[in-house]
């Protein structure tokens, strides 16, 4: 069974020249999704430690850092130290995930593991009991504004079954192409934390977009606003 749905806007495509105003637009969200990109793991560059620090100082939302960076074992812990509520590393970029997850927990953050669209779920199966969130990418990581990759619905459903089979209540986050037209199917498949970049920032009224997305996701799972710690 899924948890109460949570909406985490991604600020990747917010107007960076007006960061404070852009952060104020999403105050009603459940968390802030911060994409960190190193131009190696993905062909784009964004955020990094000092920008993350600035964001943390200007938002009251829990920050969920999505690290699209190589050598996560080395670079991820600093995001936990800074105060990000959740730190998510890609399975493809960590060599010692059990050690990393333990370290993130020791530093007071929740730990997530992310999978690119073609990385099989089996890679994370042994880790599910250790992590707080599984991120299933629903586009190739790197850019906002892409279309939802439909075959990922089966992967989400398979992940939810795998989580339930282990008797866990792990959150399953999806990221990429989440919109008013895709969120219900993703919620039905078993996702419960929804990253939304364009769907929130391209709308005139971000608060309205957040509440509509939340309602659509909740209509499927029969829940309202999230009450969980980060979400
Ligand atoms: C893409 C990022 C996403 C991105 C989502 O690699 O991880 O968080 O900002 O943007 P939308 O919602 O526009 O697909
Ligand atoms: Zn992301």
From TrEMBL:
Q: Give GO cellular component annotations, separated by semicolons.
A: cytoplasm
Q: What class of enzyme is it?
A: isomerase
User: Any idea which residues are catalytic in this one?
Assistant: 35 (proton acceptor), 175 (proton donor)
**Cofactor note as given:** Binds 1 divalent metal cation per subunit.
Cofactor(s) needed by this chain: a divalent metal cation; Fe(2+); Mn(2+); Zn(2+)
Query: Which reaction equations make up its catalytic activity?
Result: D-ribulose 5-phosphate = D-xylulose 5-phosphate
Binding-site residues, a divalent metal cation? 33, 35, 66, 175
**Domain of life (superkingdom):** Bacteria
List positions binding substrate: 10, 66, 142-145, 175-177, 197-198
A GO molecular function for this record?
A: D-ribulose-phosphate 3-epimerase activity
Its EC number(s): 5.1.3.1
Which SUPFAM superfamilies does this entry report, sorted A to Z?
Answer: Ribulose-phoshate binding barrel
Q: Which GO terms describe its biological process?
A: pentose catabolic process; pentose-phosphate shunt
Q: Which Pfam families match?
A: Ribul_P_3_epim
UniProt entry keywords in alphabetical sequence: Carbohydrate metabolism, Cobalt, Isomerase, Manganese, Metal-binding, Zinc
Q: In which pathway does it act?
A: Carbohydrate degradation
Q: What does this protein do?
A: Catalyzes the reversible epimerization of D-ribulose 5-phosphate to D-xylulose 5-phosphate.
To which protein family does this belong?
Belongs to the ribulose-phosphate 3-epimerase family.
Name of the protein in question: Ribulose-phosphate 3-epimerase
What high-level taxonomic lineage is stated for the organism?
Bacteria, Bacillati, Actinomycetota, Actinomycetes, Actinomycetales
């Amino acid at each position: 069974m899924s948890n109460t749905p949570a909406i985490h806007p991604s600020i990747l495509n917010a107007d960076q020249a007006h960061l404070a105003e852009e952060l104020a637009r999403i105050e009603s969200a459940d968390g802030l999704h911060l994409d960190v990109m190193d131009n190696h793991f993905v062909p784009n560059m964004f955020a990094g430690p000092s920008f993350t620090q600035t964001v943390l100082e200007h938002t009251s939302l829990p920050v969920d850092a999505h690290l699209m960076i190589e050598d996560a074992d080395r670079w991820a812990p600093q995001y936990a130290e800074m105060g990000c509520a959740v730190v998510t590393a890609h399975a493809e970029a960590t060599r010692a995930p059990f050690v990393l997850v333990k370290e993130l927990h020791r530093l007071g953050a929740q730990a997530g593991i992310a999978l690119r669209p073609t990385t099989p779920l089996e890679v994370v199966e042994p880790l599910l009991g250790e992590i707080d969130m599984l991120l299933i990418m629903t586009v190739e990581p790197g850019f906002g504004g892409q279309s939802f990759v439909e075959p990922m619905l089966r992967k989400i459903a398979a992940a939810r079954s795998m989580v339930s089979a282990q008797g866990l209540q792990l959150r399953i986050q999806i990221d990429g192409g989440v919109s008013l037209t895709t969120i219900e199917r993703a919620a039905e498949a078993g996702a419960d934390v929804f990253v939304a970049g364009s769907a929130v920032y391209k709308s005139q009224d971000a608060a309205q977009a957040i509440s509509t997305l939340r309602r659509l996701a909740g209509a499927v799972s029969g829940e309202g606003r999230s009450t969980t710690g980060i979400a």
